[in-house]
Amino acid sequence: MEFDRRTALVIGTVGAAGAGLSALNVPPPGGAGAAPAVPVTQTMLLTGADADHTVDWEFQVTAGRRAGEWATIPTPSNWECHGFGSYHYGGDLVPTEKGHYRHSFTPPASWAGRRIFLVFEAAMTDADVRVNGVSAGPVHQGGFYRFRYDVTALLRLGEANLLEVTVSKESADNSVNDAERRGDFWNFGGIFRPVSLQAYPAAGIDRVAIEARADGTFAAQVTLAGVSAAARLTAQLRRLDGTAVGGAFSVAVGSGATSATLSTTAAQPRLWTAETPNLHQLELTLASATGVPLHSVVERFGFRTVEVRTGDGIYVNGKRIVLKGANRHTFWPTSGRASSPRLARLDIGLMKDMNMNAVRMSHYPPDAYFLDLCDELGLYVLDELTGWQHHYDEGVGAPLVEALVERDVNHPSILFWDNGNEGGWNTALDDDFGRYDPQRRAVLHPWTTFSGVDTSHYQTYSSTASKVAGATIFMPTEFLHGLYDGGAGAGLNDYWKLMGGAQRSAGGFIWALVDESVVRDDRGGVLDTNGSRAPDGILGPYREKEGSFFTIKDIWSPVQPANPAYYDSVFPASFDKTVKLVNRYDFTNLRTCRFGWQLLAFPAPGGGSGHRVLAQGEAGAPDVAPGATGAVTLGLPADWTGADALRLSVTDPTGRDVAGWTWRIRKAPDFAAGLVKPATTGSVTAAETAADVTLVAGGTRVTIGKADGRLTGVRRGSTPVSLANGPAPAGGTATLTGFSHFRDGTGWVVQADYSGDLTSVRWRLDANGWLRLEYRYRATGDHDHLGVNFDYPEANVRGLTWLGDGPYRVYKNRLRGVQPDVWHKPYNDTATGASGFAYPEFKGYHARTCWAVLDTTEGAVTVVAAEEGLFLRLFTPAVGPDPQNAVVTYPAGGISLLDGIAPIGNKFHGVAALGPESRPNTATGDYHRTVYFRFDA
C-alpha cells in the first residue's frame, strides 16, 4: 500500500492503546503496509501528527467569523486561530458556536479481521462522531481527554469512507462547562489533538498498567480482548538501548480472559528520578497455546517509588525531594491549545534552564508527548483533572478520570493526580484514580490539604513561615503569582529561604510559566491577554525571557555558594582561589558536574558591549554528596588580579548550564579612576547672572540655577542636552541656605548648601569636559527610595550601554539573577506581559552601575559612579491594565541616582505581606556619593 498524501495515511506500530502518539508512527518491517512478522497495532493518522504537521479537513463554523461557510481548516487545531468563530475567555459561554468537520479516508484492505478503533486524542468540547453516515457512539463530553469508538463494523476497508464530526464549543452538560469553560483561562473550540485509526489483531492486548518500584519489583496489569482460546503472555524488560533486564517471564491466559497480571523482580535496576531519568521498556507478546504470536506491544516505564510520608515529606526512591516548579498551560499565541513535540520540548528545556525539576499541568492533562518528554528529560509532574472553582458531576467526571489515568498511568514522571483546582474537585471522584492506577499515586486537591499535603495557594511570607514549621507537608501548587512583572522571581529569595530547606516543605509551583496572549486576527494581529487575567508568565507568549527567569534560575540552582557574600557581584576580599559550594541536588554528586572559570576584561565606554576572555580553564569537580558542602579550587594564573572580573560556571551531567556567577575584581572606584582623568591644561570660565551660573570648558556649557543649586541646562557645542532639575532629593526636602562658586585649579566649582534632607551639592566642571557632582543627604527611618533625581525627556532616548548588573532591571526584592558585564539595550516601552514584549525592558532600576552611556538624539550622556552600589533608575515603566498589587513605586523625574530602591508586589499581595527583602529601605543617617558626567556629540 502507498501513502495517501491527501489524507496523510500513516501505517505504523504502537504499543497498547494507552501509548502516546509520539510512539505511533514507526513503520513496520518491510515498509508501509507490509505485514509485520509479529502482529502489532497499526495506526493510520487522519489528521496531522501535531500543530506543526497538519492535514486539511473540510470545515464549517455555525457562529462568529465565517459562520455558515464551508472551507478547509488544518487539523489538529483550534478553529479560532484560523479565522473561524469567536474568541472567548473563561465564563463567556456561546452555546450556538459549533464546528462541522468532514474528511474522507481509505483504510487499508489488509486490516480485514482486525478490531479497528477511531481514536481522538481530544476535542473541545462535545464531539458527535459519524462514520459513513452512522453514529460511531455516544457524544463524548470533556475537552481534554482521549476517547475512542469501535468502528470495525462501520468501515469499508480499501474504499473511501466519510468521517463527520460536530464539535460543540460548549457542552450540553453544565458541569462540563463549569469545570472547563468557566475556568480562568482561554476557551477554544475544535479538534486540537490528533485523530487516528488504530487496528488491533482480533485477539490482543488492549492496554497495560505498570507498577515498577525502586526495589526492582515489577508488575503489569494487562487488559485483553478477543482471547477465544488458551494463550500465554510473555514479557521481557529492557533498557532503551535494548539491553535485557533479567530473563523473560510469562503467565498463562485462559480462553475468554479479559485481564492478566505478570510480575518479576529486576536486580538493581537503574532508577528513574528527575535528575536521573533512566527509562526501561516492557516488550509484551500474546501468543497462542502453540506459540504463534497474536499481538505484541512495547510500553515504556521507569523504576521508581513515590511516597507521601505523612507529617514528614515527599520521597522518591527513599530520598526526600523538594519540588521547584511552574504551572504550565498548553498554549501558543497562534495555535491556542494545539501544540507539538517541538513546543513541548521548548517549554521543558526552558523550565530546566531555570533549574526547575517539576511542572504542574494547569488545569487539564497535556498532550501525551509532553509527558513522554518529561519522562525522557526529567521533570516531576502533577497531572490534573480539569476543574477551576467548579467540578464535573460524577456521571460525566468518572469516565474522564478513567481516560486520564488509563492514558497516563505508565509515565514515571507523574507523582500525583490533581482532582481539579481551587474547589474544582468532586470528592466522589477521589477513589476513581486508584481504580486504574496500580501505583496508587496520591490524589491532591490543589488549594487545600488532602492526602497529607497542604497545597494552599498564595500564602503570605508570615503564613508560609508558619506552615513550613507546622506538622503537615507544605507544597503550594500555586505561589508568587507572576502578573505582569510582579511575583515569580520577586520575593522568591525570601520564600525559598523558608521553603527550600524546611523538613516538611516539599517545595512549590510558581504561577505561571507563560503569558497567555492570543494573536487576534480580528484585531489586526494584536496580542490579547484578556486584560490582567492572562499575563502571568515568567516567559512572554513567544517564550521571551522576562527578568524573573534569571532570578529563578539563580535561586533554584542546585549548586549554591556557601558564603552569602558570593551572591554580590563585587569580588569578596577574602578570596583564596577556592569557592565553597552547597550541593542542593537530591540525587546528584557534584563530582559528576563540570566547573569552568574565566578571567574577563570589560571594554570602556565606546568600546562596545560584552567582555573579552583573558584566560580560562576547568576546575576539578569536588566530591560533594547531595545536601553536603564542599569546595572547588580554581587553578588561576598568578596575574589573575589584573582582570576585571572572574566568572565561575557549572554544568550538569547532561551539559546543561545550571549556575554561573561573575564577580568583579575591580571596583567602581577603579573603573572611575581609569575613565575620569583630571585635566592637566586649560581652564574653565564662569559667567553669572541674577538667575544662574554658567560654566564653560571647551564645547561644554553647564548652567546651575542660583535659586536651588540644580542643573538647569547643558550644551555640547551648539546642541542642547536636556538633562536638568537635579539633583533633587528622591525623598524629603531641600531648602537652599548657601550658594557660591569659585575656581579650583583647572576647573570651576559651584557649591550649594541646604537645610532639610539634602544637605549639600558641589558641582565641578573640569577643563577636559568632565562634570563632577558630589552630593550629601541625610535620611533615617523607612523609605522606598534613597538618592536624587534629574529630569530628562524620555522621547530623546535611543539606547543604553552600561557596566553593571544586567541585562534586566531589578527591584529591591528581585536582585538575584543579574550579572556584571557591559550590556547594551535599545530603548523600548514594553509593559511586561501586556504590550511591547521586547525584553529586556529598557526602563526601571539597574543594579550596581559602574558607568552608563545614554544614547540620545542630543548625543551621548555618560555617567560614572565613583563608589560602589549605585542604582541607576531610567524613567517609569509602563504597566498593563489593572495591575492590582503587582506595582512598584518610582521617584519623581526621569533619571535617578539611588542608594535604595523599591520592591514590587504581586497580584495577591502588596509588599507589606512579603518577606524581609520586600520591606522599605531602612536609612542609617548620612549618605554621600560622587558621580561624573560627560556630554559628547
From TrEMBL:
Pfam families, sorted: Glyco_hydro_2, Glyco_hydro_2_C, Glyco_hydro_2_N
Top EC category: hydrolase
Reactions listed under catalytic activity: Hydrolysis of terminal non-reducing beta-D-galactose residues in beta-D-galactosides
PROSITE patterns: TAT
Molecular-function GO terms, alphabetical: beta-galactosidase activity; carbohydrate binding
Domain Glycoside hydrolase family 2 catalytic, residue spans: 307-427
GO biological process: lactose catabolic process
GO CC entries: beta-galactosidase complex
Keywords recorded for this protein, A-Z: Glycosidase, Hydrolase
EC identifiers of the protein: 3.2.1.23
All copies of domain Glycosyl hydrolases family 2 sugar binding, residue ranges: 70-201
Residue ranges constituting the Glycoside hydrolase family 2 immunoglobulin-like beta-sandwich domain according to the UniProt record: 214-304
InterPro entries to which the protein is assigned, alphabetical: Bact_Beta-galactosidase, Beta-gal/glucu_dom_sf, Gal_mutarotase_sf_dom, Galactose-bd-like_sf, GH, GH-type_carb-bd, Glyco_hydro_2, Glyco_hydro_2_cat
Family indicated by similarity: Belongs to the glycosyl hydrolase 2 family.
PANTHER family: BETA-GALACTOSIDASE
Identification of the protein by name: beta-galactosidase
